[in-house]
Every structure is written in C-alpha cells, then in structure tokens.
Design brief:
With about 190 residues, the chain is mainly alpha-helical. The protein has 7 helices and no strands.
Length: about 190
C-alpha cells in the first residue's frame, strides 16, 4: 500500500547519504569521547559546541533540499535550527558553557530522541524493517538525556560517558534513517 508518506520519502532519498554521514560523525564523536575521558573539560566543551553547530548546518541543508518532497520536513528544519542556535551559544560563551553544558546536552539529546521516536513510527506504517531499531535508539537517547539533566553534578566522568553513549545512539538513529531513505529508492 502506497501512502503519501511513502511517496514523499521515496522522492527525498537523493540526500539519504547526508543522514548516514551525520550518523557516522556522531558515532565517531561518541567513540572519541569514550577514548579520551581525561581530556580537558574545556576541550570537550568546545568539541561538543562545534559538532552541534555543524550538525545544525547539515540538518538545515537536508531539510531545505527535501522541503518539497518530505512530509514532516519541518522537524528536520526545527532540529537543524535548534542545533545551530545552541552551537552558536555554546561557542560564543565558553566559560558559561562549561557550567551549563550538561543541561544543553541533556535537552538537545532529549529533542533528538523524541525526533527519532517520532520519525520511526511512520516508517513502521510503510513497512520499513529498521523502524524498531530507530525507536529503540530514540528511547535510549531520551533516557540518557534524562540522566544528564537530572544529575549534572554527578561528575564529569558520568557526563562524558553518558554523552558518549547518547552520541552513539543518535548516530545509530541517523545511519538507520539514511539507509531507510535509501531503501525507498530501491523499491
């Protein structure tokens, strides 16, 4: 059964690789954070800030490139604008950012997790196999976001490791989304 969601996603697959690339970058960032827990918190703060800023640019580009074909493209645009604004705020205020980074990351990841959950459910309705993994990644990201927000003073190590896992989960979501979009092109 063909639906308008299916038709709109099928026509948007020309940029599926952007989601995969962004997902790979998230996974790389997650593993980098795991491998360098003793790095300066200032350095980690700046890396997060730049990465969130770059993520916003790519998300906005994806949304604009697919605005005429994708149902719900506004979610991508909203996410990109949110990332861009948060990235600018984090980069421009490094001292304040160090103190409030857990809250920024927590709320940012919460939005991303909700986005993953919200986008995975329509994929189920069109019969995509990977929708369950995207749902799990979204729920796990929301859980990690709550952990970060509720325990910002728990210690920099817990924030570092929780952030690393959450970045990997967001990356997994983006990779599955990208390959799901590509699969529409093959049908």
């Amino acid at each position: 059964m063909r639906t308008s969601l299916f038709d709109s996603m099928q026509s948007a697959v020309k940029n599926w690789w952007m989601s995969v690339l962004l997902g790979i970058l998230y996974v790389i960032l997650g593993f980098w954070v795991f491998s360098t827990p003793l790095e300066s918190y200032v350095t980690l703060t700046m890396v997060f800030s730049i990465f969130i800023f770059a993520s916003g640019i790519m998300e906005i580009a994806f949304a604009v490139a697919n605005s005429n074909q994708t149902v719900g493209w506004g979610w991508y645009l909203t996410g990109g604008i949110l990332d861009l604004i948060i990235g600018i705020l984090l980069i421009s205020n490094p001292l304040i950012t160090m103190a409030i980074l857990p809250f920024y990351i927590g709320f940012w990841l919460m939005f991303r997790g909700m986005m993953a959950v919200g986008l995975s459910i329509p994929l189920k309705t069109v019969g995509m196999r990977n929708w369950g993994w995207m749902l799990i990644a979204g729920i796990a990201t929301i859980i990690f976001a709550f952990l970060i927000i509720s325990n910002p003073l728990f210690g920099s190590m817990s924030i570092v490791y929780t952030s690393a896992v959450a970045f990997i989960m967001v990356g997994v979501f983006r990779i599955f989304l990208g390959f799901s979009l590509k699969a529409f092109n093959l049908k």
